[in-house]
């Protein structure tokens, strides 16, 4: 999972995030520690993780959990990455649906600019709520999906 995380960051964020961060020799070990904690530490027991594989090889990862923001959404998508070669194949949608309940409000942060990812999330009902932050020198927009009783049917 850490390898997929690092590889897809490098594919996705080259030119948006500094090369120093993306090429840091310690990046993989930090992502390994991140995933080890996310999957084993009891404080993260409410998180939901999923992987996608093809022919026994991991090609995508996703994780959600309780909202970390002051947003009304109870769920937050923390991670959703698939190798670029699998974009448009349905892998992203399958991962999203595996970790986010379609019948509940949800939020996520997406890099800006990242028109492909933003279009993907819009297709799945997420809209920008105007919140912006910078993380790892990357500008991010918050997107939310509000679900009302009529939508959940």
Summarize the helices and strands and which ones pair or pack.
Blueprint (H helix, E strand, L loop, with lengths): L1 H12 L5 H4 L4 H14 L7 E7 L2 E10 L8 E8 L8 H9 L6 E6 L3 H9 L3 E9 L2 E8 L3 H4 L1
Parallel strand pairs: 3-4
Antiparallel strand pairs: 1-2, 2-3, 4-6, 5-6
Helix pairs in contact: 1-3
Short characterization:
This protein has helices spanning 2-13, 19-22, 27-40, 91-99, 115-123, 149-152; strands at 48-54, 57-66, 75-82, 106-111, 127-135, 138-145. The chain is of the alpha+beta class.
Tell me the helix content: 25-40%
Put simply, the count of helices is 6
CATH architecture: 3-Layer(aba) Sandwich
List the uncertain runs.
Answer: 149-153
**Overall spatial form:** globular
What gyration radius follows from the Cα positions, in whole Å? 15 Å
Order of helices and strands: HHHEEEHEHEEH
Note the beta-strand portion. 25-35%
Task: State the domain count.
Answer: 1
What would CATH call the class? Answer: Alpha Beta
Largest sheet: 6 strands, mixed
GO molecular function, one term: acyltransferase activity, transferring groups other than amino-acyl groups
Protein name: N-acetyltransferase
InterPro entries: Acyl_CoA_acyltransferase, GNAT_dom
Keywords: Transferase
Task: Explain what this protein looks like in three dimensions.
This protein has 153 residues and is of the alpha+beta class. The chain has one domain (2-152): Gcn5-related N-acetyltransferase (GNAT) (Aminopeptidase). The protein has helices spanning 2-13, 19-22, 27-40, 91-99, 115-123, 149-152, and strands at 48-54, 57-66, 75-82, 106-111, 127-135, 138-145. It has a 6-stranded mixed β-sheet with strand order 1-2-3-4-6-5, with helices on both faces. α1 crosses α3. The radius of gyration is 15 Å and the shape is globular. 24% of the residues are buried. Mean pLDDT is 91; it is low at 149-153.
């Amino acid at each position: 999972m850490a390898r997929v995380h690092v590889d897809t960051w490098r594919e996705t964020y080259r030119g948006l995030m500094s090369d120093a961060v993306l090429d840091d020799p310690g990046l993989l070990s930090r992502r390994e520690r991140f995933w080890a904690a996310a999957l084993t530490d009891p404080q993260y027991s409410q998180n939901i993780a999923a992987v996608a594989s093809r022919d026994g090889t991991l090609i995508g990862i996703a994780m959600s959990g309780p909202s970390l923001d002051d947003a009304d959404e109870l769920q937050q998508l923390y991670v959703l990455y698939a190798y670029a070669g699998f974009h448009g194949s349905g892998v992203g949608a399958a991962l999203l649906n595996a970790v986010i309940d379609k019948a509940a409000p949800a939020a996520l942060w997406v890099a800006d600019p990242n028109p492909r990812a933003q279009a993907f999330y819009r297709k799945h009902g997420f809209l920008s709520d105007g919140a912006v932050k910078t993380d790892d020198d990357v500008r991010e927009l918050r997107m939310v999906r509000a679900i009302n009783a009529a939508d959940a049917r």
